[in-house]
Design goal:
There is one protein chain. The chain is mainly α and 474 residues long. The protein has 2 domains: 89 residues, no CATH class; 346 residues, no CATH class. Helix content is 70%, strand content 1%. It is built from 20 helices and 2 strands. The chain has a two-stranded antiparallel sheet with strand order 1-2. Helix 10 packs antiparallel against helix 19 and helix 19 packs antiparallel against helix 20. The chain is globular and about 60 Å long. The N and C termini lie far apart (73 Å). The relative contact order is 0.11.
């Protein structure tokens, strides 16, 4: 009897009990639907991989952020849409959180724009006390909390130069995939979102996987110049050309949106990089020539909606600031600022305020500030504007420090290219977008991770692989 008890005691270990419970759960799921246990086991296996290589989880999260669009949303909670990205984000956070617990990995790190971002969030929370619409204000606060969560994870697990490169590779790959799905999906008649957005209702403006054309262009524009920069540091000729082709393809896909702001933001970013180094300048001229040829082919080749999108940029480039819609919203923002004595209308509530300032805008699809600066002015007042430009200044200072630390290494082209993309976006943001727009914050977090990697390398007296300026050879 004692031997039997000993045998039972040896079997009823915590590990065996957990395994038995898991088997019972899987059996129950099988009885409901045979596919459920397969999905659960796949998730467990993926989690094991992610726990071993957390940088892959971060890269997956970035790719999901880019691919996920409003058309893929399947749930709406208090005005916040839940789609592809949110489950992937939750899954990655859980996996990375478990790894942090098991390995005692420090998640919360210092980063240069941490304090000013915290001040922006606190001012938004304070703005709830005089907001016209608390629910809208809460949504704006929650989106910044999501930014903190994603940025913290990105910066915590991109710890080496190889990690940062892997994140950029995934970003490039996701944008290429988006372009393939968008262009060939439309050509084959598999996808058509032109009726979803008024800006694309007349045809000639690619909407990607269901995005408004300007947002589709913004989603892609960040990685165009950095993709070219990554091509310059490749040792293998085949890899270098692969990155150059990817750069041109993403650029071409961006232009099919017909977004003039997207086109100008890329030109602004490329101009900033070209000012930095002769080699960059030479390649910028080459890309400009190829881009011009692409425009001519689309223009004279009658390439359907793709050609129309490109032609819109060329033929109507002078009218980006024309029209009453943007001006009417900006006038309303200024009036909101003045009538509140520079305090702003509080977090959220812009749509509700338009009832007073423009009944036509209130009943239209154009009822948003059309620019980050104008949005911060109307909602956050003078303090919101000061915090916005403080954030820009801090990011600019961080960029200069990153370029200085990366000089002469493989990281130098990327150190120049990533803030150049952000500068182009900043210029564009005066006529489009909101402060919490995706994927700007993920891009900033990846660049901040590069900054932290370089700080660590310098503090330890180490060096990244050298890259010879002027030759493009590593």
């Amino acid at each position: 009897m004692s031997a039997l008890r000993a045998s039972l005691r040896s079997l009823l270990t915590p590990f065996n009990l957990v395994v038995a419970a898991a088997q019972i759960v899987l059996l129950g799921l099988f009885l409901v639907d045979w596919k459920l246990p397969v999905v659960v086991m796949a998730a467990i296996l993926i989690t094991i991989v992610l726990l071993d290589r957390p940088v892959v989880a971060v890269a997956m999260m970035l790719a999901a952020r880019l691919i996920s669009t409003g058309s893929m949303s399947f749930l709406n909670v208090g005005g916040i849409t839940i789609g592809l990205f949110e489950p992937v984000l939750l899954y990655a956070l859980v996996a990375l959180g478990l790894r942090a617990v098991f390995t005692r990995h420090k998640l919360w790190r210092w980063w240069p724009w941490q304090l000013v971002f915290g001040a922006i969030l606190l001012w938004r929370v304070a703005g709830l006390t005089w907001s016209l619409t608390i629910t809208e204000g809460l949504k704006d606060c929650i989106t910044l909390c999501v930014v903190i969560a994603t940025s913290t994870v990105i910066m915590a697990f991109l710890e080496t130069w190889e990690d940062v490169k892997l994140a950029i590779y995934f970003w490039i790959g996701a944008c290429v995939l988006i372009g393939i799905l968008a262009i060939f999906g439309d050509l084959l008649g598999l996808t058509d979102y032109s009726s979803t957005w008024k800006a694309a209702s007349r045809g000639g403006r690619e909407t990607g996987l269901g995005q408004q054309p300007n947002w589709f262009a913004m989603n892609l524009m960040f990685v165009i110049i950095p993709a070219a920069a990554m091509a310059l540091i490749q040792k293998e000729l085949l890899l270098r050309w692969a990155f150059l082709v990817a750069t041109l393809f993403i650029y071409f896909t961006t232009m099919t949106s017909g977004s003039r702001g997207g086109a100008y933001s890329v030109v602004i970013g490329a101009g900033i990089v070209a000012l930095g180094q002769p080699l960059f300048r030479k390649w910028a001229i080459r890309f400009g020539a190829l881009g011009f040829v692409m425009f001519l082919i689309a223009w004279f080749g009658n390439l359907g909606d793709i050609g129309k999108g490109l032609n819109r940029i060329v033929l109507s480039s002078s009218s980006i600031l024309e029209g009453d819609v943007r001006g009417m919203n900006w006038a309303a923002c200024i009036q909101m600022f003045v009538h509140t004595d520079g305090l702003g209308i509080g977090t959220g509530g812009y749509v509700a305020a338009l009832k007073t300032y423009s009944w036509w805008l209130y009943n239209s699809v154009y009822r948003y500030p059309h620019g980050i600066f104008w949005s911060e002015m109307s909602h956050g007042g003078i303090i919101g504007v000061i915090l916005l430009f403080t954030l820009v200044g801090v990011i600019g200072k961080m960029s200069m420090d990153t370029i200085r630390m990366a000089r002469g290494t493989e990281a130098e082209p990327l150190a120049w290219a990533m803030p150049a993309s952000m500068a182009g976006y900043f210029a564009w943001s005066f006529v489009e977008f909101e402060l919490d727009e995706k994927p700007f914050w993920e891009w900033l977090a990846v660049y901040t991770a590069l900054h932290l990697v370089l700080r660590k390398v310098h503090a330890e007296g180490k060096k990244l692989p050298e890259w010879k300026l002027g030759s493009g050879e590593a």
